[in-house]
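Render this sequence as a predicted structure.
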Amino acid sequence: MDFKIYHFKIYQEAFGPKEGLLLQQENRWSEVSPLPGRSKETLDQALQQLRAIQQGYQGPLLPSVAFGLFGLTAPRVTQAPVCLFLMGTPPEILKKAEQNCGCKTAKIKLGSFDLETAISLVKTLKPHLRLRVDIGGRWSPQQVMSFCSHFEPKDFEFIEDPGQDVSPFAMASDEESWGSTVVWKPMVKGIPKKQTPVILSSSYESGIGLHQIASLAKAMEIPAHPLGIGTFMNLQADLLEDPLVIRAGQAHFPAELRLKKEMLTLC
């Protein structure tokens, strides 16, 4: 298979520095960037498999590699419904929520906050946004149940990774066997089976990788749930010359994905 491989490094406010690979096949670009701590493969292992594919390898694919190869043939999209991504200090979260650009849904990461702060934040936000609350498995069972006691199931789209059953609240997890909603990170888990109902979410990719997620949603004909691609708002500098923008709750991609070549190094 004929494609070029480039190395890049970006910085995400919510994650820190992240390295990855871009694949180029004529005028098509895609991203391969395993998520440290979540992906089963390292970036070096992904690079090794990509080099093997260039030499004719046709065996099983690592998840990030499978997603990257999909991106080379994926349908182009110019917009997709987006879920606002709220992370940071309480003042930062509230400021981002005020500048919601028409988004009706927001994901808020609460696991690092004490219970009182988390409850106060959610009570401020819930009249204005449909919330996906991400606890990340970081609270004790007592904290989780105390938090839930201040709200009603209708207040949230779901609670992600609560670490325990919080029925009657809707739950979500990245495990298919746990929770009522599956949050699927294709860079970590590869391409989901078509019959698997999922909400697609990012792994702190560049704009190229986020376009792949939107393309996957289109290819799989996933219902118009807001995609978890709002992480691009935390990118200090994207690889795309023309950055993504949010208008009326939609992430708008440039018609032509032009790259900042100075941020790329040929492997």
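Summary. The two ends are 16 Å apart (CA to CA). The first helix runs from residue 43 to 54.
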